[in-house]
Amino acid sequence: PWGWTAPSDSVIAMNHLKRLASPRRESAPAVRSAAAGQMDVFTRAALRAMPQLLPKHVALGLNAAVGRPGSAPLFDAALERLVEMRDDPLRDYSFNAQSVAMILNAFARAKVRDPRLVECLAQVILSRQPASGPSPEKVSTPLVDASDDTPQTWNGMNIGLICNALVKLGCWDPALFAHLAGMAHHAPASSF
Question: E-strand spans in 8-152?
């Protein structure tokens, strides 16, 4: 119904509405109720927009949908989109540490365990090298955005969040955790 909006607008609206509808906010009950009702509208819009969303927008939409009744189709569509972005040889989709952490944590909090998710994002994580300063030979690929692959994005906090979510999702891959440990070892101490 909103042909004038960008695909990402629906997930941004979902994120704001979730905050507004939170029982922890001091919003009036009527405002929380209205926000919750609008969430359904924007969730459907996000589902339609999923084929155009970038990793960070998928992460926003999933986190807004956690705990919402009827959110399973959004998680299913998001997983399909993540695999599609990872496998796209023509476009350079940027999976930064924050979006990977948010996506994994959304699936973990929603208790949606799907081995395809871990397999998909493990490939993204394993494509990253520990931060050791800028490298002139770094190039962007479908899995790595060299401009976004910095110690600030793959920092201790994001690596910790990723590890925590992987465990909650039942992942115990020694190679993946060894790689994350190596990345953590090279992350600035102030980022933990």
Answer: none
CA–CA dist 20, 168 (Å, integer):
28
Cα–Cα distance for residue pair 42/47, rounded to 1 Å: 8
87-98 confidence digits (pLDDT tens): 887 776 778 999
**pLDDT value at position 143?**
43
Q: Alpha-carbon distance 59 to 53, whole Å?
A: 10
Report pLDDT for 154.
85
CA angle 62, 128, 132 (to 5 degrees): 130
CA nearest 13: which of 39, 49, 48, 32? Answer: 39
**Where is pLDDT greater, at 19 or 181?**
181
Task: Say how far apart CA 180 and CA 187 lie, in whole Å.
Answer: 10
CA dihedral 73, 114, 163, 11 (to 10 degrees): -10
Q: Could you give the CA distance from residue 169 to residue 113 in angstroms, rounded to a whole number?
A: 6
Q: DSSP letter string over 117-172?
A: HHHHHHHHHHT-----S--TT----SS--GGG-STTTS-HHHHHHHHHHHHHTT--
The predicted-structure confidence for 30-82, as pLDDT tens digits, reads as follows 877 888 888 988 999 999 999 999 999 999 999 999 998 889 999 999 999 99
Contacts of 44 (CB under 8 A, 6+ apart): none
